[in-house]
Protein 1
Amino acid sequence: MAELLKRTPRIAAVHLLPKGLQAVRSRHPWIFEDSIARIPDDLEPGDIAVLFDKKRKLGAALIDPDSDIRLRVLAFGATAPDIGPELFRRLAEKAAARRRGLFGADTNAWRLANGESDGFPGLAADRYADVLSVKVYSAAWLPHLENVLAAFLAVNPELKRTSIRLSREVASLPALRRLNYEDGILRGEPGWDGTVRFLENGLMFETNVRFGQKTGFFLDQRENRARVGELAKNAGKVLNVFSYSGGFSLYAARNGAREVTDLDFSKPALEASERNFELNRHWPGVAACRHRTIPDDAFHAMLELEKRGERFAVVIVDPPSFAKAANERKQALNSYSRLAVRAVRLLKKHGLLVFASCSSRVQADELFAAVHAAASNEGFPLRELERRAEAPDHPADFRESHYLKCMYAALR
Ligand code: SAH
């Protein structure tokens, strides 16, 4: 890869203010500009900061001059190891050990390392069968990327192919824009277009790690998909709003749902969903299930379904993050409430609502209070059955890393 990646990182001493010291002491991996006392001003993304209070070493971090999160701490303490291949290898091993035994032979796709919570702040690594799919959310990783990839490949010998993707923010940095990284980089097999098939709880899915959303699939919803499968056993009609490639729908279909409808405004997502149904025809439930797709805006299509008098035994609502920044929280809650209204109006009596949010800016309590209030105000009070969070391969070890919440509730 190009110059930014090949650059040998500089190592600089960085002195922290009390706020920064506090962060490091509580083992928080983010240090913002206003927590830094002294830092050389000519540093580049991926240079290495050795952190100090007045004179004591406190840890080691990657420097990201373009981000509000100026330092991403990788190692804590006076004896913090150097940032380099050995540390990456150790972190990849620790992440693998943490996931050992989580999955049987019927699942071969999971998150290998979940950013900050696995010691890789600003980087996600997923496995899809033999593919390593890495997404880089901070330019600070770029000069270290080859070493990081080597660590994951060494620790997980089943991985043969690699996909590297940069977040939109990183790909559009002035230094990278002309390199056209937005579409990602594939390695490991000449002519490979990024397509991969993998198993999740015995269901087969196909995705394209180069063009699919996130790293190709929403692995964080695996356990919720399985739970929906259980709860939708022999259900009548199921509506999957924001369906992406039909994940929730396939679990419901396999377990005997009579008809499932995927609603998403992305045509490629719905085409993928149709393909995924084809790939699972050997399951009698999937073969017997009527599958319908609606390419439309969720709010608009739900209203249309209601007008046509369609009612469902199960409605799943799994929207994208509506609040990317803190000041969008109120507006997001408003959108969630509007969705909840649309959803409960489509439920049959005693029907099941599954409502998820992946916005870390909105807390579970306020979100579900808003959903309950919106439903009650419409005259459709809900009885909450359970709440769930991220899948176990997505550990969330500090406050900001909790993002996924999912509520199951029945119409009274
Ligand atoms: N439930 C899915 C993941 C959903 S991701 C799974 O288990 O895999 C969110 C999806 O919402 C994306 O596929 C995106 O294309 C779709 N989307 C975003 N905004 C939308 C809108 N206004 N109307 C319909 N679909 C939308």
Protein 2
Amino acid sequence: MFRKILIANRGEIAVRVIRACREMGIQTVAVYSEADRDALHVRLADQAVCIGPAPSSESYLNIPHILMAALMTEAEAIHPGYGYLSERSSFVQACETQGIQFIGPSAEAVAKMGDKVQARAIAESAGAPVLPGTRGAIRSEEEALQHARAIGFPLLIKAAAGGGGRGIRIVHSEDSLLPSLRIAQSEAQSAFGSPDVYLEKYIPEPRHIEVQVLADAHGTVLHLYERECSLQTPRHQKMIEEAPAPNLRPEVRQALGETAVNIARAVGYQNAGTIEFLMDSEQNFYFIEMNTRLQVEHPVTEAITGIDIVQWQIRIAAGEPLPYQQTDIPIQGHAIEARLTASIPEHDFTPSTGQISQWIAPGGPSVRVDSHLYTGYSVPPFYDPLLAKVIAYAPTRHEAVRRLRRALDETTIAGVQTDREFLMRLIDTPEFHAGEVSTPFVPRLLRGAIATGGERL
Ligand code: ADP
């Protein structure tokens, strides 16, 4: 096992990884930007190294400085968290070159799945259903027109290198295809460094269902069931996630798990990863992408399986075999996570910054709070607005919904504006209670198209 791990991240996820290391008796090195001197992850780690000024491009994305910090402190492994360098194959490669173990999959798997066009082809080769769309990146306008007619409208133009809900455009009719294509290509070039885009069939009211996988270096590939992540902002940022997905037919659940394992095997995957699918109203599912890293919403899966995913990421990277078989992992109970963010939902989720004048975290039975907040903490304007994840666990979905509602109700965050009240409104809708939501639900609620307070439209 590693003696010391460097955590190349900040915020709640850096704190989460430090906690896992502590419980395993592993020393930790935090890295931080000048804006994060007083951050909780810096206080909790055994050592901390400043890696640059506030902007992420000069600090949390600064590969030479992060590698230097690891070498200086003699850390043997790097946990990248999510976001930042977690899905950069060049970083994985650079760690390998320096003899530092990257806690995640190989550079090759990251590169293959990071290209959504290639990922679709791999999924297809593994027998997974994919949405109708172009097989490769669009090479000419004639090709785009031809494919678009075959797929039908509306359709999506997606950036091959896109991620984080960015790089997706909807096209409603043939007249807007070519202008949208040109915009999408130039946006993809400036945002992701590659103009490659592809076309994909649009599903009108999809549910976002993803499957957690764990794969070791000895050929064992397991799935830890699915998460429902259909409650998303209009820009596809997830707001509430749960496991297991409500109202899922058992044979669909089984097929999802098997498909995810086949995809992971097809790419020679090791470590924790997530295979994302869209599901239509008949519960047909289609592969959309793989995230080759830890997800924000991993705690709901930990709650229902009893498996500490971060600790297993570390053990797998150290070469330990998974001691489970698929049949050893039952689903127990139900877990729901709400993301508290410093943002104003009614104003297009504009981020809010400021000093936290009061933070009272919720508690009580089976409530988990993953957060880097403390009273007096200043939320810097440079980073992701996630403040805390509140996770409620209970034997049944109904009880988990009530528990999450209770937990959010007793939470106090003063000093910045948050989405707390909006999250409670969401939870109070009859649609959420019934487990019947799809991705357009939050945008509709924001537009006032859904009645709240127990009354259906
Ligand atoms: P990213 O990598 O940016 O997260 P994804 O391909 O995972 O992009 O898609 C993000 C979200 O966009 C999905 O959860 C879903 O809400 C929406 N979306 C993606 N593809 C489609 C599609 N073909 N039809 C309808 N909605 C889609």
Protein 3
Amino acid sequence: MEMTFRWYGDSDPVTLDKIRQIPGVTGIVTAIYDIPVGKVWDLDRIMALKKKINDSALAFKVIESVPVHEDIKTGDGNRDEYIENYCATLKNLAKAGVEVVCYNFMPVFDWTRSDLTFELPDGSNALIYVKEQVEAINPLTSDLSLPGWDAAYTKDGLKALLEKYQSITEEDLWGNLKYFLERVIKVAQEVKIKMAIHPDDPPWPIFGLPRIISSRDNLDRLLKLVDSPYNGLTLCSGSLGAAPSNDVPALIREFGDRIHFGHCRNIKITGQQSFEESSHRSDDGSLDMYEIMKAYHDIGFTGPIRPDHGRMIWGEQGRPGYGLYDRALGAVYLNGLWEAIDKENK
Ligand code: DNO
């Protein structure tokens, strides 16, 4: 297992110098954020990013994410061009030594919460999801914005896109994902990049949009769409674990050889389709992080893992979910679990 940490590039107040001081963190997970979705990432830009990260003595092997254009998800007009561009980006990333590419297939919105600064009893601020609150949000009029949401939409553009999805069923989305994977995995295999789809967060439909990467059966279906080791998963414990029907350690054991990237965080389920993002510690949430790390250890996982969202603690202000302190505590805690499990099993 290699402990990695997400970095949002030069605008991130959590700098590479800070990240390299977190005990046990050896690699960076990042992306190029200013290239519009669907365009090719130039090799020069990728190499400059790699150099910056390597100069801080950190590895550059994981990209999160190369976003998938909505035309691909809706199966619309320009999808072939965007798929070609996607493949060209993969080829360039491979030239720079990237081994894993994380992406998602969530229509329009990436991960979603109802409140980004909810105060927990200890005074820290957490991201939370309350079913009724999300159901009351109208994405066309709301100011809510999360890291990961494409900020490039105009109101009219967003409206048109949401309307287009009215006629797209879950089965249509599966068909469009298959079309994408049949073309992209061929190239990924050639250049040895492991594709790792991120599950839908939360793992149920929101704003009337279909969401399909959400359960054991759907992960199984996804892996069989193109049955190649390069068609794999980002196993996100906090996303899948928000549905109590998903047994995260069991998923790790079942899909082990197709998991290329682990997102490890805890959540506290507070009601039906409602949860708070707790600290990473098992006792603070609903997931048993020891069992999760043990499952990774038992399958002999050697890939990258990262702590996931953190609360805002010690007065820190920053990108929701992506401050320094609580994520650093998460990394150290996960490494501690790993060391103990490793020594017990020698
Ligand atoms: C949330 C992240 C997601 C993830 C994308 C992958 O914090 O885990 O935004 O990066 O869904 O494409």
Protein 4
Amino acid sequence: MHKNVTLVDHPLVVHKLTLMRDKHTPSAVFRQLLREISLLLAYEVLRDLPTTATTIETPLAEMEAPILKGKKLVFTSILRAGNGLLDGMLDLVPSARVGHVGLYRDPETLAAVEYYLKMPENVGARRIIVVDPMLATGNSASAAVSRLKEIGAVDIKFVCLLSAPEGIKAFASSHPDVQIFTAAIDEQLNDHGYIVPGLGDAGDRMYGTK
Ligand code: URA
């Protein structure tokens, strides 16, 4: 496995992912499963968040106890499917800031075209967690991360549900400094840039648009 990849293959994650892959799973269930998996992925990607000590009083004694340190982190969703991962992560870290990057895939070239960008201030001082369920060609993820670096982001991690070897290779060569967290690495892309076996179009599965 590529050194930039952390595979989150906890039994709960792989079980929920199997249910999501099944084409008979309805949108409402698909969204709920994605929300649940995103909690588990967030737990892994945030494992190395820095902490500091603070003094508190328990009912029994005073103690030095750890709390999170530094500026609030930023969950950054690549629209629109990224929002499915975002919701669960916000359940886990409600005080996080939220950014959005709007990209669509040109159906001919599969290149990523930006139509929206909204980020909180001071991205250079924050941990940025970029989320998109599918790392397929890697074009959208690479373009999103390039834009975030352009506006000053330096501490970036990428979280997806499913990835293709082609996407991992492309993303890791554009952004060797960005660790990828994924629940599974599938076989390959098909000619339309879809992950096989995959789960289909994540946005359509979430929102019932097909
Ligand atoms: N985007 C999706 O939603 N699904 C894929 O398989 C590839 C890209």
